[in-house]
Amino acid sequence: MTAAARPPASTPDPLRWRALVVLAVAQFMVVLDASIVNVALPSIRNDLHFSDSNLQWVVNAYTLTFGGFLLLGGRAADLFGRRRIFVAGLVLFSVASLAGGFATSAGWLIVARGVQGLGAAIVSPAALSIVTTTFTEGAERNKALGIWGALAGAGGAVGVLLGGMLTQWAGWEWVLFVNVPIGAIAAVLAPRWVRESRGEEQTQLDIPGAVLVTSGLIVLVYALVDANNAGWGSAQTIVLLAVSIALLLAFVAWELRTRFPIMPLQIFRNRNVASADAVALLVGASLFSMFFFISLYLQQVLGYDALKAGLCYLPLAFSIIVSAGVASQLVTKVGSKPIMVGGLVLTAIGLLLFTQVDANGSFGGDVLLPSIIVALGLGFTFVPLTITAVAGVTPSEAGLASGLINTAQQVGGALGLAILSSIATSRTNSVLSTSPPGPRAVPNALTDGFQVAFAVGAGFAILGVLLALVVVPHVRAEEVQPEAPVAA
């Protein structure tokens, strides 16, 4: 550690828990923003004249830049100071939120959402790496990550609730404006409560690597999102997929030869990191799209307004908070793997129950029970997954490991939403083309599409269960020791 690094985590430090509050609230804001716009999507579409195919980019622009730049954000935190990068990200995120709230066109809003994602990509890995280097590995870190997981997980559900309230009472612009005071307060408190720290080595940022991986992911997801319109076998889709693969392969080749890679591939020799990131990709694919489709089902099929749809997420938010707290305690006692597998099983069960939603259904009969089961699964999955992803890494790699787990979740979410949206749209169009016209034709067709999407999402969760059983090591956090630093 350098002179700017934190004191040993075993040293009594009352600022640690205050710092956790600031860090967890910032992460809550980042996750909240990924879901808060979902309820506002119909209002945004009408006000800014979005087409149905482009509406997803209000979500995807944020998710893609978030996932694409997380590695750069995490590495920058290690090199230039975690608190400094954290505060810079908060400022960028808040300014982009303010600009997005004043958007008068679809393009303006999409650009603002992309810049928000960049700010989030700086904030999130810096915050998690600060938690990782501040709290001792074992029971203390598990408790801290339980609090972190409860707030981060609840952010997705609370985002939909808050989005409904703000959209109904103040207008969709306020789902973006609300970030400004939260980010400003966190930025002011961080220098007072969060200690500065950084890794030992001094290297250069891998800008070409960041550009290659971000470009590759954006092209890939665009190809998937637009494949339903262009056709899966069309020249456009095939060319875009080929370009994305070429960019991602070029990224790997560059990382193998550059002196200062943004993602030293040797870090995957740490089995905890590699296995957690692989599972996180499937968790993101199965869960992120759930909020999108539930919101559309409540509003477009059941006819709920934004506020009523948001209130439907209260049980889900409460269940996540409870399950994340319980999960942090259970992980200390029995290890991460069994809790993670149990959480993924619950997630799959909940998503399978969602496949039974009915066009003439109700919140109590079709949404309440599955949402609670999925929420319990999310809490039991997210906490042990995060603990595993940062177990055994050296302090100098904390930002990189944090960036990797966040990248896996966000990329999985973006790809999952793209794939499931295409599947749902294709199914809906197919049903509409063969159904007689009538007042219930569209709700029935939409519901069929949502059912198929939930089934595929459950399949991702089941794959996550199998992968966790096979590749995640069965060790307790306190048994994992930091590995030697990875050579650049």
Verbal overview:
The structure is a single chain. This protein has 17 helices and no strands. The protein is an all-alpha fold and 488 residues long. It has two domains: 409 residues, MFS general substrate transporter like domains (Growth Hormone, Chain: A), CATH 1.20.1250.20; 56 residues. The longest helix has 37 residues. The chain is globular. The two termini are 17 Å apart. The N terminus and C terminus are likely disordered.
List keywords for this structure.
488 residues, mainly alpha, Growth Hormone, Chain: A, 17 helices, disordered N terminus
SSE arrangement:
Blueprint: H1 15-48, H2 52-55, H3 57-80, H4 82-101, H5 106-134, H6 139-169, H7 174-177, H8 179-193, H9 207-230, H10 235-257, H11 271-301, H12 306-311, H13 314-334, H14 336-354, H15 363-389, H16 398-434, H17 441-471
Major sheet characteristics: none
Which architecture name of the largest domain does CATH use?
Answer: Up-down Bundle
Mean pLDDT: 83
State the order of secondary-structure elements, H for helix, E for strand: HHHHHHHHHHHHHHHHH
| Class derived from helix and strand content | mainly alpha
CATH class of the largest domain: Mainly Alpha
- Amino- and carboxy-terminal Cα gap: 17 Å
